Amino acid sequence: MARYIRGQMKIQQMAFMLMAVVLFFLLVVLFYMAFQSRNMGQKAEELRETKANTVALMLSRTPEFSCGDFCIDTDRLMVLMSRENYNNFWAVSKIKVVELYPRDGLVECTMQNYPNCDVYSVYDKNKKGSSTENYITLCRRENLDGGFVNICRLGKIIVGFESI
Amino acid sequence: MNKLGLEFNFNWLFAVIVGAVVIFITIYAIGQIAGQKEEETATYISKQLDIFFDPLETGIASGKSTQVTLGRNIRINNKCSSQSLAPYKFGKQEFSISEFTRNQWNRVGLPAILQDKYIFSDNMLEGKKFYFFSKNFEFPFKVSNIIFMTTENYCFINAPSEIRDEIQDLRFENIQENSFGNCTESSIKVCFGSDSNCDILVEDLCNDYSCEEYEIGRVSKTGYSVDYVGSLVYAAIFSSQEVYECNVQRLMIRVKELCSLYADEVSFLSRESCGSELRTKLLYLGAVAENLPLLALRNTAQDVEDQHSSQECKIWQDI
Question: Whole-angstrom Cα distance, residue B71 to residue B129?
């Protein structure tokens, strides 16, 4: 009887030992996975930020915005602002263009107040995150004395990216 | 003695079975983690590739070229879809990467999905050295920057002066302009005009004064031929039929959207007395862009350009 109990104790001892080994391995794997996932999140965020930077530089060269290198056509922006088809076209969460000088007091641009305004919200998905900026020239056309002239101002383009 | 032996055997048997299970799970987990790591690296490379394409946007330059040499062999899978479905209203391209390590191709990473880029290449590229160059595609306004991606060496025979100059100016390492006998054995021979024993034949379809030599034409490869307009000649040479046709369709979706955007801009500028004839022509081009063949559309695009150049208020001219 005593031998039988001792045998059972040994089996229990071994079972607990094996359970401890399994738990130890599980903890190591969990720790590793948590570390990896944090690392992966950081890498994804870095990639998004780099992407937003390159998009901020590149947007002024795309036909939807461009009036030349680092020049944005604000007449076209007014039309583009109402188009939902472009909301997912560039892989960023927000595109905003702001006039820096001369300022009209940070007035949001609408069909009624254009061109006496400063802020053009192309789209904003209202996602949590940060943004990156790039300085550009903002130009529009005006018919003065029977001829078209380009009126240009200093501005910046703000491109937002989602954070993890 | 017998009982003791049984107790010893059972203990060992129990330890061996559970031990084997633990070791198996550990090895399996390590394999999975290593596989995930490889997949993660492949996904990271495909996302970096997406970022790498952005600076290739040409702006006012006529073209840009660059090359990338990697430490190990990779495969780039280029999958294109021209279906205009939300959220990809302009079609999409998917790039996925697989690395060659430990004498085998690893699992393919998650694809980078691009909506605003048009990358012309074969369906799958494999190698350590990748050549990229980009050109503007105008129809008649700038529609987008188009990017060409290759791994092969090409030899252009009897190329027109414009293409010859471009090859020299952009200093392509993998494209040489030569006569037939001087091409290297391994290079893909691209003949302009009629010539036998060429891998790719480019025919000029410009018959009148409305176009320049080789501005419109047809590119024939083994088993198929495709029509091109302007800078799409490179696209037809460097990419597979599937990728070419899909991307041309995607470009036409963009033409349609830009026509509508510019037409609305003309209306918006009507307060400044900006010509309204252009609006009608733009709307017509937009309406037929996705339906007519490329060469037939070119005449409509030319009509839009003629109207635009004749009016004082310019819509898509650089300031």
Answer: 9
Distance CA B140, CA B138 (A): 5
Residue ranges in chain A modelled with pLDDT below 50: none
The 10s digit of each residue's pLDDT in B173-222 is: 888 887 666 788 889 999 998 767 889 999 999 888 888 889 999 999 98
Residue B94 pairs in a beta bridge with: B79, B113
* Residue in A89, A114, A134 to test binding to B, most B beta-carbons within 10 Å: A89
**What's this model's pTM, rounded to 2 decimal places?**
0.86
Q: Compute the distance between CA of residue B137 and CA of residue B230 in angstroms, rounded to an integer.
A: 7
- The domains of chain B are located at 252-310
Cβ–Cβ under 8 Å, residues A52 and A131:
yes
Q: Is A65 on the interface with B (CB under 8 A)?
A: no
**Computed over its alpha carbons, how large is the radius of gyration of chain B?**
27
Q: Which residue has the tokens 């021209």?
A: B82
Report which DSSP code applies to B171. Answer: T
Query: And the tokens for A82?
Result: 């109402």
| Chain A residues near residue B274 by CB distance under 8 angstroms | 141, 143, 148
Q: Which residue has the higher pLDDT, B1 or B151?
A: B151
The distance of A143 to chain B (nearest Cα, Å) reads 5
Q: How far is CA B16 from the centre of its chain?
A: 56
- The angle subtended at Cα B276 by Cα A117 and Cα A96, nearest 5°, is 25
Residue with tokens 């350590």: B128
What's the Cα-to-Cα distance from A94 to each of A8, B173, B240, rounded to whole Å?
Answer: 67, 39, 35
Q: What is the largest CA-CA distance in chain A?
A: 116
Where do the structural domains in chain A lie, given as residue ranges?
1-164
Chain CA centroid to CA A114, Å = 28
Taking contacts as CB-CB distances below 8 angstroms, the residues of chain B near A68 are: 60, 318-319
* pLDDT on residue B273: 74
Comparing CA positions, the residue from A12, A99, A51, A135 lying closest to residue B117 is A51
Give the C-alpha distances (Å, rounded to integers) separating A84 from A73, A79, A124, B257.
19, 11, 11, 11
